[in-house]
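ok new one. same drill as before - structure tokens go in, u give me an amino acid for every spot. 299 of them this time. try not to just spam alanines like last time pls lmao
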């Protein structure tokens, strides 16, 4: 997990983290790395091995509260269903990540229950996410940079798909650039089994500009839904602008193809590949990671 200073937002303003120094199993909590709408991430140290790790706790301030004994409970009876659905989503994420072992996918080393909630233990990774990169740089990235980063992201995404899952939340903030420059795909909390792709997930994470139109419209999902989000992430890196919402595009498409604006700066095959994955209709996109890679690297 990345080293991030937790920003205070509306969704996490009511988060109540565990006190630093608290021990969970053999892990001593040292620092708060992040506060989100569904979780709190801590920096921790294994007291037996000395290894520094990141621990992600299921805690959604919209539906739960922390008691004095550190246990987590639904805010009230009317929040019970939302709490259980959120917990299941978190549990499913832990299970998914424990099944995947790939250098470009965050891995769960340990997963346990305590305090009436659940915890994931992951390697602690230093770096900055692509959202930071987009905000902090003025010039469009080089073609070499884009291909180096996103071919590795596609390799990780292919592994997610081959393990039978869809990610469904690819976006700049969920791609960490390690200090080595290698990318790491984060947060599979919205993941969904490919076998169930004709079923609409009960809880959906929708990120305007990145979620595919079919996610907004609650239609069947596929691997091409992830490729759409990845194409929109590449679009944001190139243009330094957030893409238009998939829902808005399904009504009136205002997205200008990259091939029309950036053909003098980038290889036309790469731009054509991104534009193809950005198609509104899933049937018109490349259908898997290998097809996207083939288009990106075509001579």
């Amino acid at each position: 997990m990345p080293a991030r200073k937790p920003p205070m937002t509306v969704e996490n303003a009511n988060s109540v983290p565990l006190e630093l120094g608290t021990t969970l199993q053999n892990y001593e909590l040292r620092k708060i790395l992040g506060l989100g709408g569904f979780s709190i991430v801590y920096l921790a140290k294994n007291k037996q091995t000395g290894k520094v790790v990141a621990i992600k706790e299921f805690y959604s301030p919209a539906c739960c509260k922390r008691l004095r004994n550190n246990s987590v409970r639904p805010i009230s009876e009317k929040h019970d269903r939302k709490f259980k659905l959120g917990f299941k989503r978190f549990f499913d994420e832990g299970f998914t990540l424990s099944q995947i072992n790939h250098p470009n996918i965050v891995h769960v080393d340990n997963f346990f229950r305590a305090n009436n909630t659940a915890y994931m233990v992951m390697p602690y990774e230093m770096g900055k996410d692509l959202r930071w990169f987009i905000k902090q740089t003025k010039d469009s990235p080089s073609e070499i940079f884009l291909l180096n980063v996103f071919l590795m992201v596609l390799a990780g995404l292919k592994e997610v798909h081959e393990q039978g899952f869809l990610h469904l939340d690819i976006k700049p903030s969920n791609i960490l650039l390690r200090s080595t420059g290698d990318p790491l795909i984060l947060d599979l909390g919205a993941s969904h089994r490919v076998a169930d792709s004709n079923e609409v997930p009960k809880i959906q994470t929708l990120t305007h500009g990145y979620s595919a139109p079919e996610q907004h419209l609650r239609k069947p999902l596929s691997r091409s839904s992830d490729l759409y989000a990845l194409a929109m992430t590449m679009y944001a890196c190139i243009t330094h602008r957030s893409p238009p919402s998939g829902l808005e595009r399904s009504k009136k498409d205002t997205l200008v193809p990259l091939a029309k604006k950036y053909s003098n700066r980038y290889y036309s095959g790469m731009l054509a590949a991104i534009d193809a994955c950005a198609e509104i209709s899933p049937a018109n996109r490349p259908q898997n990671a290998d097809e996207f890679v083939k288009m990106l690297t075509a001579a």
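The chain has two domains: 22-123, 127-297. and btw Residues 22-123 form a domain with the Phosphorylase Kinase; domain 1 fold (CATH 3.30.200.20).
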